[in-house]
Amino acid sequence: MPRIVISTLNARYIHTAFGLRYLYANMGTLQTDTVLLEFGIQQRPIDIAEQLLQQQPEIIGLGVYIWNVAEITALAAILKQVAPEIRLILGGPEVSHPPDLPQIAELADYIITGYGEISFPSLCQQIIAGHPPAEKIIRGETVALDALASPYAFYTDSDIRQRIIYVEASRGCPFKCEFCLSSLDATAKPFALQNFLQSMDTLYQRGARNFKFIDRTFNLKVDTSVAILEFFLSRMTADLYLHFEVIPDNLPERLKLAIQQFPPGSLQFEVGVQSFDPQIQHRISRKQDNAKTQANLSWLRQHSNAHIHADLIAGLPGDTLENFGHSFDQLFALKPQEIQVGILKRLRGAPINRHNLDYQLRYDPNPPYSVLSTADMSFSDMQRINRFARYWDLIGNSGRFIATLPVLLDEQPFVRFLQFSDALFNTSGSTWQIALKRLFELTYIVMTDSLCVPHETAKHVLEQDYLRNGEKGLPAFLNIAEQTLEKTGIANKRQQLLRKH
Predict the structure, then answer these.
(1) How far apart are CA 182 and CA 174, in angstroms?
(2) Does residue 219 contact residue 244 with C-beta atoms inside 8 Å?
(3) Whole-angstrom Cα distance, residue 395 to residue 386?
(4) Nearest Cα to 243, choosing from 331, 157, 164, 188?
């Protein structure tokens, strides 16, 4: 039986715990006494506890994040009830910023803040040797990146076949955007490029095709980013998929030339725009050239096959509902395939917390700690934005309403979709568990009743999108049209198309 278990709860099965693999790779002589177990937040804490205790460990290490802190707290409480003799060690962003600690900290025997690749094995050695440290909170030790053992060998064949493979070519971030924990980093540090590419080649030869880079600033150093892109271009296959987080205002010509060579469906860029308001950008210490950002996003859409996932944040200090709408409209005009409307979260340790008093930032005390209201956006405003974000995922980001969306938004994307969102919620009473057929029916009702879109126009565009989705059965507004056609004895091309579906 292993003496040490390291574990966490992933948000979805397709995710892998990259941090745990780094811990395992760096356990040294304790690696043979260590086992890595992953679970999902959908599993019952009591069932997870049973599986952990079946290993009969002396030490359990748990990774705590904003997305799993509630479930990990429930798990830790069970472990402490039935096996209080086991030493419970916590790590991860949610417990790395004392004294701002969540409730789970009270259940821990030890907490390692920051990076744990060196400090976790050292702590385990001390406990096993019978000389546990007196202090509960241990500051994670950092070392040169080339001193760390590589985690990539510890992706299993099952991981490679079924899950996302997380990789990092660099650590840290040189920017100081206050909403992000990476603002606490001194700079970005690259891993040795040739060693990194050798690891990528090994993963590729094992069959890995879904690579998600967790670097905060992939395109910061053009030589490195071009080299990585060229590495994958030389190994291009129909199923290769790469995800990068990029700086929106830094797209040199050499990088553009490499990006242009990627075929459709192989490249996704996550682009953090967050806000186009210069005053807000200055307030949160975000350096962003808006003109270059807009030019680069426009170039990517016009001259590359990259899929653009662009982020905005609602609830930043000093932002208003109307002003956020201006940022949304500017971003929408650049035509990214996805606009992720995010809500400001209270990350423990993030510098943006210095604005809490001046801008009356009020956060949900429950994870993920989303902002509830600010001095400039009421609770009602934030609830409207929450619903806007959810419905935008269903309508704007899903790709299911290609013909409908231009009619729905007309010349005022934010104002019109906010009006649509309000009316859709009033009609449906829900933002979740809306079947696709029902969503089409509700969209027709709201477009014609609240947005005053002519009935025939709404039917025409919604019919195109509905048939494209290949759903069985007809939504109510098309059923009515079908019955009318049958009563009049008219059998036209449209009717035949409907019957086929």
Answers:
(1) 8
(2) yes
(3) 14
(4) 164
Strands 137-139 and 59-63: unpaired
Domain segments of the chain as ranges: 4-145, 155-377, 399-501
Helix or strand run (H / E) with residue 285: none
What topology is assigned to 155-377 in CATH?
A: pyruvate-formate lyase- activating enzyme (3.80.30)
Exposure letters 423-435 (e unless 16+ CB within 10 A, then b)? bbbeebeebeebe
Chain CA centroid to CA 84, Å: 35
Q: How far is CA 65 from CA 43, 70, 90, in A?
A: 16, 9, 10
Sign, Cα dihedral of 117, 218, 13, 435: positive
DSSP class of residue 311 equals: E
Return contacts of 448-451, CB within 8 angstroms, 24+ apart: 449/423, 450/419, 450/420, 450/423, 451/408, 451/416, 451/419, 451/420, 451/423
Mean pLDDT for each consecutive 10-residue tract of the chain (501 residues)? 96 94 97 97 98 98 97 98 98 95 97 96 97 96 94 97 95 89 83 97 97 92 95 97 94 95 97 96 95 97 97 98 98 97 95 96 96 98 98 97 97 98 95 92 96 96 93 83 46 46 44
Q: CA-CA distances (angstroms) from residue 218 to 173, 246, 264, 480? A: 10, 5, 20, 52
pLDDT in tens, 302-344: 999 999 999 999 999 999 999 999 999 999 999 999 999 999 9
CATH homologous superfamily of 4-145 equals Cobalamin-binding domain (3.40.50.280)
Query: pTM of whole model > 0.85?
Result: yes
